[in-house]
Amino acid sequence: MRTAALLLGAALGLAAPVQAQEECRLALVLGLDVSASVDAAEYRLQVEGLAASLIHPSVVEAALSGNGPVALSIYEWSGRFQQDVLIDWTLIHSEADLTTIAERVLRATRSHEDFPTAIGYALGFAATHLERAPPCLFRTVDISGDGQNNDGFPPSAAYEHFPFDGVTVNGLAIGGASRGIEDYYLAEVIHGPGAFVEYARNHDDFEEVMRRKLERELRVVILGDLEQ
């Protein structure tokens, strides 16, 4: 009887870390700019760049490393009331999961194209959407865009009135002739612990920068897990 009890205790002890590993480590929501400043060709560069980034070996490796899966969601944003979910919350357990999401992104039809740039509303939507995510250790918003807020309340108001406690907001600033948009994202958009901006000179650089950004976000969480 004592031997059986010891064996049961050992089995439960082994099972506990496995259960901990299955806990979602990161809820990551990606926001894509589809405002009027993004033309059809630039939109395709964004969509194709995101899809290619999701299945890049370095991103796949980062997504599948660490303790537990990542929960991923993707939405498009433009004006005050134009936010549309492309991919609802999905737990990433395998490379096949990322491939499926990438294929769905490529098949998606652009939701809007004639509205201004309402970053504050886009952030508020992301915060509310995160509340529907699976329970995860960390929560991150990844928002990309090529223009400053010109419609509705600013990002600062979103941070004041929406649930951003413990949420990190990173930015992918898509530039043109100058790096002014990067400065704007640094000063007005990013938020929370460890927040950062990656800069793309134009939409042609979107894929490379998105891949680098996803790797950075996923690996920061992995390192955080290791330090605990």
Characteristics of this structure?
single chain; 228 residues; alpha/beta; Rossmann fold; six-stranded mixed beta sheet; 8 helices; 22% strand; disordered N terminus
Overview in brief:
With about 230 residues, the protein is an alpha/beta fold.
Question: What can you tell me about this protein's structure?
Answer:
The chain is an alpha/beta fold and 228 residues long. It has one domain: von Willebrand factor, type A domain (Rossmann fold). It has eight helices and six strands. A six-stranded mixed beta sheet has the order 3-2-1-4-5-6, sandwiched between helices. Helix 2 (40-54) runs antiparallel to helix 4, helix 3 (57-64) packs parallel to helix 8 (206-227) and helix 5 (119-130) runs parallel beside helix 6. The chain is globular and about 40 Å long. 40% of the residues are buried.
In terms of topology, how is this protein built?
Elements: H1 2-21, E1 24-33, H2 40-54, H3 57-64, E2 70-77, E3 83-92, H4 95-107, H5 119-130, E4 136-145, H6 155-161, E5 167-174, H7 180-189, E6 197-200, H8 206-227
Parallel strand pairs: 1-2, 1-4, 4-5, 5-6
Antiparallel strand pairs: 2-3
Strand order of the largest sheet: 3-2-1-4-5-6
Enumerate how many helices there are, as a single number.
8
Radius of gyration of CA atoms, rounded to a whole number: 19 Å
CATH level 3 topology: Rossmann fold
Proportion of residues in helical segments: 40-55%
State the name of the first-level CATH class: Alpha Beta
Structural class: alpha/beta
**Number of discrete domains:** 1
Average predicted confidence as pLDDT: 88
Q: For this entry, what is the oligomeric state of its chains?
A: single chain
Which overall shape is indicated by the principal axes computed on the Cα atoms? globular
Sequence of secondary-structure elements: HEHHEEHHEHEHEH
> What percent strand?
15-25%
| Low-pLDDT sequence parts | 1-21, 223-228
The appropriate CATH architecture is 3-Layer(aba) Sandwich
Strand tally, please?
Answer: 6
Assign the CATH superfamily.
von Willebrand factor, type A domain
Please give the largest β-sheet.
6 strands, mixed
Span between termini: 37 Å
